[in-house]
Amino acid sequence: MGSESESGTGDRENEASPAARDLPRPISGLERLVAPGLDALRSAQERVEPAWQAVTGAEARWQVSIAILVAISLQVALPGRVGAHPRWLFPTVAGLGIAAIIIANPTRVDRHSVKLRGAVLLLTAVMSAANMNSAIRLVIDLINAEGLREPSTLLLTGAAIWLTNVIVFALWYWEFDRGGPAERAMALKRYPDFLFPQMTSPELAPPDWEPEFTDYLFMSFTNATAFSPTDVMPLSRWAKILMMVQSAISLMLAALVIARSVNILR
User: Fold this and answer.
1) Which domain holds residue 122?
2) 9 has pLDDT over 60
3) 229 preceded by cis ω (within 30°)?
C-alpha cells in the first residue's frame, strides 16, 4: 500500500509539472532591478546597428545617369584645342555605354552582375581618360602661355574640366565603396571604405540609411574645393590615395587657370 501511495503521489506531481512550468516564475529583487537596464541596452543595440551589415533597398539609377550625361555634355562643350579628338569619338562611346547600362538595369541598381559593373567601370575609365586628356592639354597651354587667350573662355574651360573631374571621381567613389551600390544594398561587405556622418550618429538618419550617388558627389565636390576630406572620412588605403589624387588635380587646375586669367587681364 505504501509503495502504491508513493507511486500515485509521483504520478500526480508529474501530471502537474507541465502546468507548473507554465506559471510565471517569481522575479527576484535583483532581476527586477536590472531589467530596465537590459531593455535599454537591447534597444540601443538595435538602434545603432550599422547599415552596412543590414540589407537595404536598392538605389535609384537616375542620379548617376544624370551626372554621366552632364559630364558628357561638358566634354562636348570644350573648345577643340583641349577637347578629345576625334570630336565625335568620346560622346559616341560614352553615349552608347550609358544607354546600354540603362537598358540592362533601368530603374534601380539591384543586380549584382559582373558584366554590368564592368560596363560601368569601363565607362568611368573612358570618361576619366577623356577628361585627363583635356586637363593635360589645358595645363600645357597654360604653362606655354598659348591657346586660350580670352579670360572668360579660359575660366569656363577650366571650370568644365574641374566639374567633370568632380563627377568622375564621385563615380569612382560610388563604384568602389564596399563593392559598389548593389553589394552595399545586399550588405555583402562588412567594413566601409568611407565613414559618413550618419554612420557615426545613426539617430540623425533612418535605420535603413545608405549613402547614394548624391552623397558621393557632395564628398567629391568638397574634397575638390577644400583639397582635403571634410565631413566624410576615407578609411581604406585606396580611398585615401584616390582622394589625394583628386585634391592634387583640383589644386593644380585651379592655381594655373586663375593665375593665367589674372595674367591675361593685366
Assistant:
1) 55-265
2) no
3) no
